[in-house]
Amino acid sequence: MSTPRWWSGVVDGVVEFQREHPENLPGAVFAAETRADGPLIAAVGEGWSAGSICNIGSMTKTFTATAVLLALAEADRLDVESPVAEFPGMEIYREDPVKRRIKVRHLLQHTTGMPVFLATDEEPPVLPGAELVGPTVPWIGSPGYTNEPILVDGRSVPSRLLNLDQVSEHIMRAYPLRHEPGADYTYSSANYVVAGRLVERLTGKSPNVFLAEKLFRPLGMRDSFFVAQPTGDVHIDEDVTAEQRARIAEVSLITRDGQWPPEVAPGPDGGWDILRRNWRFVYPDGGMYTTAADLLTFLRAVRDDGVHEGEQVLPPAVVKLMVTDHGFGHTMAFGYRRSTTPYGQGPGTLDHLGNIMTYFWCDPRDGDPLHGVFLSQRLANAIVNNNMVDGMRAIFRGFVPLVSKGAR
Fold first, then answer.
1. Which of 144, 222, 319, 337 sits CB 3.0–4.6 Å from 283 for a disulfide?
2. Is the per-residue pLDDT at 1 higher than 70?
């Protein structure tokens, strides 16, 4: 299949954007696909290639949501209206008269009422073992991101040293709700830490291991994983090779003042640790690594009602929940656009953004759905002195409109 002319125009446009704005686009791998043209992948920037492996940040939530739905289907309990407290190991929510009303759908569509980020009153204490995973910072909301100190057996321990069960239990007990479950949309990564726990309790497997068995391997997503190097914990370790680790892209620090974002805890060397050394926390809300090619494969399976190479990988009932509008701008796995976006995507577009400049979408278009992927690795200010939008222009003012227009 020859390269269509419109794709050459997209590549030229991204290259031009990087030439004009190198401070906001350190490099990227990007891709698109239609039935007519097949998968198209390109890269820009020194050290970047079609095979670059990226941490996709909050796009991970789409895959954790998929794991929840698959786990529910396996248990013959595929009902997102079920109260979370009814499931084994989730009884903590029964202790609170409001939290006990949290349903599965509330976790997946960010309507539990849990907070995004909150600054705490005091600096976290110096913690035993903290040097293994970097410092903690005085913010809560995403324990992997902030390395939040958590009280375990009378000791304050960095969350990165703890397992998913310990971190999720802390969130379920301690995190406040800002509103009644189901009443409003409040984006919160904490929802997906609890969702990861639900997968673990339903299946007896860590969500990363469950996804590898039920999704990544059946779809041939060979470069998709959560744990980049062995931890010694056989319940979470994955078979990631040295060659794959060498393809993990570096993350560039691009903040307004050139300083580390105050809400993000650095790694042991004071910067972003792309391998997450010594972490035990699986990070179901933001820790998945993958490639543009693997993401296209996943979107293709969603487009094809869960079928991949003649095999039914995703049950039709699961796919229906993943692609159907459930209100609050969400399906049970993606964001959902009810009208044409400012970037040229049509009504019914499914999408998800990652905070370190990653994005994918599926525009259903009559007859020939359009898929797009953009993966860069740019750590910006998101909570304080927000300059995240500066980098997002490469995606939403450049790449997406070029693809949406060119692939018609």
1. 144
2. no
